[in-house]
TrEMBL record:
<dbReference type="Pfam" id="PF13863">
    <property type="entry name" value="DUF4200"/>
</dbReference>
<protein>
    <submittedName>
        <fullName>Uncharacterized protein LOC112541715</fullName>
    </submittedName>
</protein>
<feature type="domain" description="DUF4200">
    <location>
        <begin position="23"/>
        <end position="139"/>
    </location>
</feature>
<dbReference type="InterPro" id="IPR051147">
    <property type="entry name" value="CFAP_domain-containing"/>
</dbReference>
<feature type="coiled-coil region">
    <location>
        <begin position="96"/>
        <end position="130"/>
    </location>
</feature>
<dbReference type="InterPro" id="IPR025252">
    <property type="entry name" value="DUF4200"/>
</dbReference>
<dbReference type="GO" id="GO:0005856">
    <property type="term" value="C:cytoskeleton"/>
</dbReference>
<keyword id="KW-0175">Coiled coil</keyword>
Length: 315
């Protein structure tokens, strides 16, 4: 006992201390491994959730684009129908103006014909007495008188009377025809006005209906835009969370850096995860070797190898 040196006495304590430190380091590595596994699983789940939400947002965006395109087509059809209705209304207005002008001309002509009829009627009434007188004279004259008096005044008067009577009958017939035409045009004009009024009410109803549909679609489009904006805000929050996770993994990779993986700045995300996993596996192997019932010399060699690995990694 007295022959033992101080170094030999302190050597078991140092080895026990080293073993305790290694056990503590192994426990820390276990915690890191569990935390890394949890983070990796959480990261994987979040990535899947983000992918699903991104797909849903893409589908909703496509649906919104489809609805917007349908709404645009509907507006174009609405404008086309409105344009056609206005053109039809304008053509009907022009047609009504032409018909009104025709009616005005026919009324003026009818007025002239009525005035002419009154004048002829007055002349007819004026010469009515002469007609009776001439008829009496003609009846009183013998038949031989007409064979020798061809150039007589009476024959001329009778022929003139016949001519005027024929002209009067023709004028009456023409007047009657014109009156029928005017009445027919009046009926056509009334029918056109009724059709125009009906068409106008129908078009006003259609325009009101289309306007209400347009307002509803516009309100729905506004709601969809608001919904998309909210979804984009939620996606930004998830992106920030993902960025924090990536920064945490980068910090762990810097802590667990191994030289044979190359520069840390050029490593990919998968390479960093592989390096962290390798570091944890190596620590677990060291822990298992320490826990084996071997002599202190093998533990000392293992501790020296660990120190050399750490120094090489630090370099």
């Amino acid at each position: 006992m007295d022959g033992m040196t101080s170094g030999e006495v302190l050597q078991p304590n140092r080895k026990a201390l080293q073993q305790f430190r290694l056990l503590k380091k192994g426990a820390e590595n276990d915690c890191l491994t569990a935390e890394l596994s949890t983070k990796m699983q959480e990261f994987k789940e979040r990535m899947e959730t983000v992918a699903q939400r991104r797909e849903k947002l893409y589908q909703k965006d496509q649906n919104n684009r489809t609805q917007a395109y349908g709404f645009q087509v509907y507006l174009e059809e609405h404008d086309l129908k409105k344009k056609r209705a206005l053109e039809k209304y304008k053509s009907e207005q022009e047609y009504n103006a032409v018909k009104k002008q025709e009616i005005h001309n026919l009324k003026r002509e009818l007025k002239k014909l009525k005035i002419r009829q009154k004048e002829l009627q007055k002349k007819l009434d004026k010469y009515k007495s002469y007609e009776h007188f001439v008829k009496k004279i003609v009846n009183m004259l013998p038949p031989e008188f007409w064979g020798y008096q061809e150039d007589s005044v009476i024959k001329t008067i009778t022929q003139r009377h016949k001519t005027l009577f024929s002209a009067n009958q023709s004028l009456k017939k023409h007047l009657f025809t014109q009156q029928e035409n005017i009445e027919k045009i009046h009926h056509e004009h009334a029918a056109v006005q009724d059709e125009h009024s009906t068409m106008r009410f129908v078009l006003i109803g259609k325009v009101s209906e289309l306007q209400s549909k347009y307002n509803k679609l516009k309100e729905r489009n506004t709601q969809l835009i608001y919904y998309i904006d909210n979804k984009e805000g939620l996606t930004d929050h998830q992106t920030r969370e993902l960025s924090r996770m990536l920064v945490g993994i980068s910090n762990m990779a810097e802590h667990c850096y191994k030289k044979h993986y190359g520069p840390l700045e050029e490593m990919t995300f998968q390479s960093k995860l592989n390096m962290i996993q390798e570091f944890i596996c190596e620590k677990n192997e060291i822990k298992e070797e320490i826990m084996k019932p071997e002599d202190y010399e093998s533990s000392s060699r293992l501790f020296k190898r660990l120190l050399q690995n750490q120094r090489s990694d630090n370099k």
